[in-house]
């Protein structure tokens, strides 16, 4: 079964054709990063306008590259939330029009479920149940993936998401937007013990996380140094920050594995591209004898292939949307059935 998938929840306009939830026939991503960079973050109004301008071309290219047309594919899947509402609506309305015109079923997909499903593409034999550490720009979660469309959140960040903390710390260091990748690169030549930060933890909720404290510590350290005229060793500040954040993510995932007895773990979301996080997870999973699945770097950030993967499993569960499908800005990963995206 071939699914045409569309993703427009933030600053990437993406379309893909995916077969049976695992095989990517085409994947096109048009990123707007350069345009938002001068503002230091995503400007929702600009994102929506660019999606409108590009979506036609991106979808056509995905169909062409897969040797398909709107009539030869079997269903249309689209990210219906969570995300920037104006950006989401561009993809949702385009998908609705296309599905109606070509008389194809319409499948709404939860963006975070999509990130998790990137693992089905990377590891074709992976099947639920497994645990997933989701670390993106908007979410940090420990998710118990009980079935393809059944999710239970075991832990979450109480404040900033990990990616958000990376971006804000990087911005304070003058590394530009989005800062995660730049911080990752600079950290490699730093001393990760040079600037010790307190380990963030949430009292009484061992699987929950908190990242705003370490982000504020970075900002304060930079302010104090600037006031005193002290030099800051930026690579070491990056490495120290990264060590603290990665440790928080890693320890929550393995604590969840201990708590649930899970033997299969995975990661998802933009921050799962982080060099240190990947290395630490590989090392600890090997030490504990657990299986660890990770999407390749091109499937960690926003893309439509992951939406096509999850779209297949939502379709198999009978999760088809009526033409009244709407987009929603916030929605727990536990809720992703069509009625949760209703008007
Ligand atoms: O999943 P994603 O592409 O978009 C959301 O759904 O939010 O995640 C984007 C986030 C950004 O905060 C970005 O800085 C971060 O992922 N990121 C990284 C790295 N690559 C992307 N953070 C740390 N290290 C990286 N290598
Ligand atoms: Zn995302």
Give the CATH topology of the largest domain.
Nucleotidyltransferase, domain 5
Using the CA coordinates, give the radius of gyration. 20 Å
- Hetero ligands: 5'-O-[(R)-(carboxyoxy)(hydroxy)phosphoryl]adenosine, zinc ion
Number of helices: 10
Shape: globular
Count of domains: 2
Quote the distance from N terminus to C terminus. Answer: 29 Å
Compact overview of the structure:
With 343 residues, the chain is α/β, with parallel strands linked by helices. The protein contains 10 helices and 10 strands. The strands form 2 sheets. Strands 3-2-1-4-5 form a 5-stranded mixed β-sheet, sandwiched between helices.
Relevant terms:
single chain; 343 residues; alpha/beta; Nucleotidyltransferase, domain 5; 10 helices; 10 strands; globular; binds 5'-O-[(R)-(carboxyoxy)(hydroxy)phosphoryl]adenosine; binds zinc ion
Outline the structure in words.
With about 350 residues, the protein is of the alpha/beta class. Helices cover about 45% and strands about 20% of the residues. A hairpin with a 2-residue loop joins strand 7 (about 140-145) and strand 8 (about 150-155). Zinc ion binds next to helix 4.
Lay out the secondary structure:
Blueprint: E1 2-7, E2 12-19, E3 23-31, H1 33-37, H2 44-65, E4 75-81, H3 85-102, E5 106-110, H4 111-122, E6 130-135, E7 140-147, E8 150-156, H5 162-172, H6 179-187, H7 212-228, H8 234-260, E9 264-268, H9 275-288, E10 291-293, H10 305-316
Helix pairs in contact: 2-3, 4-10, 5-6, 5-7, 5-8, 6-8, 8-9
The protein binds 5'-O-[(R)-(carboxyoxy)(hydroxy)phosphoryl]adenosine and zinc ion.
